[in-house]
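Lab channel / #folding
Pinned by the channel admin:
"Please post every new chain as: sequence first, then the structure tokens as a reply. Keep commentary short and put observations after the output so the thread stays searchable."

First post following the new format, from NK:
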Amino acid sequence: MIEPVALADFFTVFFTAALVILCGGLYALLFAYARVKDTPRLMPLAYLSYAGLAVSALVLAHAAHLFDSAFWTLVVGLMLAGYLVAPHGIWHLCVGTHGDEDHAAPEPESPRLV
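Reply from TO:
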């Protein structure tokens, strides 16, 4: 059974949980923006955001005593691995699905007289 978070660790858990959300969102945003706008110089910033996510998640897991259980250690590891590769898979899926579409705006229809 997982030991509850001590009051002394509450701020650490709260702060690192917020950092997981912020760094994860920034990673996804920078990754998508770098791919959509074809600016590969943003990819190192995206991976730096992922590194912040990984460090925050590991500190959070330690402060919340998740490493005391093999199951939760596996969950944390799978979450980190999945969030690293998921944007790549989603990007390839979107390109494969929408790559051949014409992105020009459709011409407006002429008004019909009834």
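NK: The radius of gyration is 21 Å.
TO: also worth noting, The chain has three helices and no strands.
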